[in-house]
Amino acid sequence: MNACCSLASNRFEQGACGEGLVPGDMTKQGDPVTNRAWRGFPVRVAGALVLAASVVAACGSSSGTPTLNWYINPDNGGQAKLAQECGDASGGRYHVQTSLLPNDATAQREQLVRRLAAKDSSIDLMSLDPPFIPEFANAGFLHTFSAEQTGGLTQGALQGPITSSTWNGQLVAIPFWANTQLLWYRKSVAAKAGIDPSSSALTWDQVIKAATSTGTTVEVQADRYEGYMVWINALVTSANGEILVNPEAGKDVQPSIDSDAGRMAAQVIDELSHSPAANAALSTSKEETGRTAFQGATGGFMLNWSYIYGAEQEAVQKGTLSQAVLDDVGWVRYPQVIAGTPSKPPLGGINIGIGAFSQHTDLAVEAARCITSKDHQKEYMVSAKNPAARGDVYDDPEVRKVFPMADLIRESIDQSGSRP
């Protein structure tokens, strides 16, 4: 099965070509399947298989250049551009086509897991959220890079992305872009509260009290989704704890949140949620709802990812945000849970994995090396506003113009705490 196959099967959500089509999958793709419609399903399958065969035949009748299929997370088109550039740079050795994954991280995982569990060979490259890499590697879904292949793949990469790309001491993904959260604040609010966030590290207690005293809010992600896990984990790791002691043990893993660190994390959440600094919609807050509130009249402080500054710059250009609000925004490192103990900011981003069942492993490694090169990481950081996994990219003048807080982002990623 090659990349062409996935084109023919694309309307059958998550089902690999020839690996079986499920009525529920069709429903998710906008093909409602009632009991009556299901009785005609064999006819639909026959038609789909004819279509699939014609597409594969068409691919096979081309120049014979292998097409690598790269499953990407949604962005502004930056990954598709890199796919085109790396295909062109290969000198005709391969093409790279992209297949878009859902917006939601959980749905991204579900789609990839279902395909990989069916040993779908059309998955050559994947853009993977760091928390899913250990699971995929442990299940045998990811190609493990040999010593020969590893050369240069992690060159210059920050420690956080390298750690998230490694499983059982072996490299199973390549750092591409990374992410972290900063404490964003309104300079006018900080001045009113009588604090200078840039002069010394702030604790969560100080941030909450500063917001309370000024009648403003501390925006976080507390809806019950990935964002809430990010917050809890950052609090626990910043208190020198961890949620799982030995995640490599699988079903025998030892939860360790019932600890001093876990109780300190719970105390921070309790303090904020019961204070006037909590947004009334705290329990349903996500990244963008927090950004909207932070830009409003009661905005004071916000924990959010590094895309924030670029998003606010774009809002100013579109006329939906005043320049005065952007000029009032400052940033510092993630707050401390224990005063005097450096925080461990959250780690996010995307690493590039290669499907264990790909029929073009060597070419996929070559393409991944191209995609994650220093020049392409810089290009992606500037265009997509997503920070690079390589530390030396942050020294580039063009990058520093887009990210005036480049040094802080680099430091935070390098000293981040991994999610279980």
Describe this entry's structure for a reader:
- By secondary structure, this protein is of the alpha/beta class.
- The chain is built from 20 helices and eleven strands.
- The chain has helices at residues 3-9, 23-28, 35-38, 41-60, 78-89, 105-117, 132-138, 147-150, 159-164, 187-193, 204-214, 226-238, 260-273, 287-295, 307-318, 323-327, 361-371, 374-384, 397-402, 406-414, and strands at residues 67-72, 95-100, 125-128, 166-167, 170-171, 174-179, 181-186, 217-219, 299-305, 329-332, 348-354.
- α10 (187-193) crosses α11 (204-214) and α12 (226-238) packs across α13 (260-273).
- Mean pLDDT is 87; it is low at 1-62.
Features:
420 residues; alpha/beta; D-Maltodextrin-Binding Protein, domain 2; five-stranded mixed β-sheet; four-stranded mixed β-sheet; 20 helices; 45% helix; globular; disordered N terminus
